[in-house]
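=== RUN LOG ===
request id: a7f3
mode: sequence -> structure
chains: 1
length: 271
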Amino acid sequence: MPTLPLGRSLFRAALADPSRVPLGTWVKLPATESVELMALAGFDFVVIDLEHSMLDLETAHRHIGTALLTGVSPIVRVPSLEGGIVQRVLDAGAEGIMLPHVDTPEQARAAVESVRFPPLGTRGVGSTSRAGAWGAVSRAEYLRYGNEEVVLLPQLESAEAVRNARAIAAVEGVDVLLVGAADLSTSMGLTETDPEVGALVADAVRGAHEAGRPIGNAGGATAASVRAALEAGFDFTMMSNDASLLGAAARAAVEAGRSVARQDETDEGVA
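=== RESULT ===
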């Protein structure tokens, strides 16, 4: 059996690079060209969204392969730990699992159980999948990559989760946190710009850093959004999503086109 290394995850490499802010975006569209375009745009990672989209597992599998071949890290947000979906997504080669609505350390430990190989977790061995380069790497390297390179990103989306941010981040096998400000604010009946929500977000950032873990957020596709994320203490940020980026570009194109008047209209009334 060859002993080729799988190497370091692209997501971890981006986090470790002090020269730039790691940037990602959500992928919600089923066309693999969407992932390819995000890679060509220069994003460091994409989060293939199985929670808030109609993507199925086969499409996610193709998205992951496209991402790996084009040099952008594929993270997959799963809707839950049920149905063996984590195992299948990881077998497909995902570099990380994002799990929404993690409110307690106990829920974080359950996620670790699904994501990690024994003795830390209970993930099954499937080294002839893409995760093991279709059997082209040694079993030891396949297991190492799964436990040391694959990232687990719990999402904090409630006041309870924020209060437990440090404890969740400190769970062995948890690597990174992400604040879901939209769900956090909605659960409190407030807007994302409310000072109370801002204070909770600051608590989450502080808790993650006290536990020695990076933390990120999701925002808009502007320099101001990225600047605000950095000022809030986030270590990485997500900029919009593929569908919204496509829509914004299409609207901008139409607005530019509509700004041009017909020649006969501009000349109307001229003698």
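=== NOTES ===
The CA atoms of residues 126 and 186 lie 40 Å apart.
The two ends are 86 Å apart (CA to CA).
=== END ===
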